[in-house]
Amino acid sequence: MPRSQMDAPESRLPLSEPVLQILISLAARDLHGYAIMREVEERSGGRVTLSTSTLYGALQRMMRDSLVERSAERPDPASDDQRRRYYRITDFGRAVAEAEAGRISELAHLLRERDLVTR
Amino acid sequence: MPRSQMDAPESRLPLSEPVLQILISLAARDLHGYAIMREVEERSGGRVTLSTSTLYGALQRMMRDSLVERSAERPDPASDDQRRRYYRITDFGRAVAEAEAGRISELAHLLRERDLVTR
DNA sequence: CGTATCTATGTCCGTAGAGGACATATCCGC
DNA sequence: GCGGATATGTCCTCTACGGACATAGATACG
């Protein structure tokens, strides 16, 4: 049974690194899979890389869980590519991302308090 | 072959939630397994709970990976309990925890920049 | 125009960790 | 001595991660 967005966003935490990175990318704008891969790698300075199996596997699960959905629109029709499949973050996906952001923010605070952040 | 502490702390990131929480507890002081469970639950306000299988499984892997080690000392000999097995964070474990703390701190900054932290 | 490389999506499969269920034994209060 | 709390541990299943591999359309270039 596919999970519905009925349950609280907090119940989905913590997110895995791939899922969080994908949500961060899609929170800014609709993107296709390959573009997400490139964006995540560039944004993280190469520290986070998504293999294609991780990327497309995660996207499928995220659609199943209603975190993202397929977008019919073609952003940038000027230089398009028929093969591309665009994804959009859902309202629920954004709520989950925000819940995770809050959790991480609190965690960062705690780690600072305990002198584990050394910079 | 068990992983040695030869490789860079960053190569072990990201840490799973259980492993990070255990390291946070042990960074403050030596503790036995059951005390770690209680501390994590209390510190997180019940949001993070470690089942015994998760806890002891994680501790075994963390020893294999030289993040923690068994401690022979008995802190609090006044009210001791023979069954307790105390664990201590290693220098390498602390380095890994600090690397993770830095990563999380940067992540929190990014999430704030992108207006995903709403509080 | 052929062909090599980049772009783009996807599956298959092995491995490892999370966690529920269960097992066992000791400690302590009453 | 009996029950609940303390304490450690295994077994088993499920799921996700990610390397290897497959396929094909787009683009550049001689």
Element string of chain A (H = helix, E = strand): HEHHEEH
Helix content of chain A: 40-55%
pLDDT averaged residue by residue of chain A: 93
CATH architecture of chain A: Orthogonal Bundle
Which segments of chain A are poorly predicted (pLDDT under 50) over 5 or more consecutive residues? none
Explain the overall architecture:
2 copies of one chain form a homodimer. With 119 residues, the first copy, chain A, is mainly alpha-helical. Chain A has one domain: Winged helix-like DNA-binding domain superfamily/Winged helix DNA-binding domain (Arc Repressor Mutant, subunit A). Helices cover 50% and strands 8% of the residues of chain A. Chain A has 4 helices and 3 strands, in the order αβααββα. The first copy, chain A, has helices spanning 17-28, 33-43, 52-64, 91-113, and strands at residues 31-32, 68-71, 86-89. Chain A has a 3-stranded antiparallel sheet. The radius of gyration of chain A is 16 Å and the shape is globular. The A-B interface holds A 10, 14, 17, 24, 27-28, 43, 47, 97-98, 101-102, 104-105, 107-108, 110-112, 114, 116-119 and B 10, 14, 17, 24, 27-28, 43, 47, 97-98, 101-102, 104-105, 107-108, 110-112, 114, 116-119. The structure holds a DNA duplex (30 and 30 nucleotides).
